[in-house]
What we know:
alpha/beta, Rossmann fold, ten-stranded mixed beta sheet, P-loop_NTPase
Amino acid sequence: MRFTRMTDLEFFRPRSLADLVNEYGEDLQKPPFIIPGILHNVSTVVYGQPKHGKSVWVCGMVKALVSGDSEFMGQPIHHDREWRVSFILSDGGAEREVVRDMAAMGLESKHHTSVLTYPGMPFTPEQWQVVADRVISDGCNLVVLDNFISLIEGNPNYTQDVNDWWNAAVRPFTLYGIPVIVVAHSSDKFAPGGEKGKTPAASFALTARTRWSVHVWRCGKDLETLAFTGKGQGHTDWEYWSNRDYGFTPAEKPVAGKPEKKDEKKSEKKKRDFEATRDMVRDWVLANGQGVSNKSEVARMVKTALNLDQTEVTIRQRLGDGGYGVHYAGNGKWYRKDSE
């Protein structure tokens, strides 16, 4: 352990590189991840919309750790200690859900997990240090804070408030070398495609402080999608199946790259529908519009004959700019646009 308390100022004194190497010792050889690409050995933020499976997924990961499993979701677990986990929860509702999930996983018979429920009162940094001391004295070496929005005292949209909370609630553990998982909500802002945002609430401050983040969202019945991002790391998406037995089976191998937007399929359909309408209007005008020089009249005839949803004004505009693939050459003559 590097420091005994967050309030110690001893580590501010200058120290030689040799002293630091000796102080860190074997810690320098530790890999950055407890579970490669999934759980960082310093801090991980797991976020998503309410009821999308964040806490259940975290509970499943904790089960794999404290049970001594060799892997989680197909990735090896780095067991450099016997894992003892402490959940620090925001309210009785969160406590009930965690107890239910952990009991369903059969962990009530294992003395490797403990629960501390937040009393719903403002915590000073000194009080958070007392909590940290208590958790550490119980022998816990992994902490889950669930959830960020309810635990923070202050405005989660203010960077300074988020930084103050992180320094008070997270750093007392990480300074002891204890990894921390922070469960948070997604931003309520809507993305350009109309879907809910895919960044955590207070995203800039949270993502700036954490080493790794996991976005959990439900994309189908019993099918979840995880998006992993981190400092200096690429972006990886991973779909997995969850079931009532709290199993998590990867649906496919991780795929690097940005997740496909949910509205892309709708855009493709919209494009196909427009192309079909364009071809239909083009063929009708070439067959029936010859000799009619008034574009407004042709637009009215097209709308009536083909029962289109577009207004006559829109149809006339698209006839005029070639949007339907036909071109008016004058004297009542219409030509296919690509055949001039």
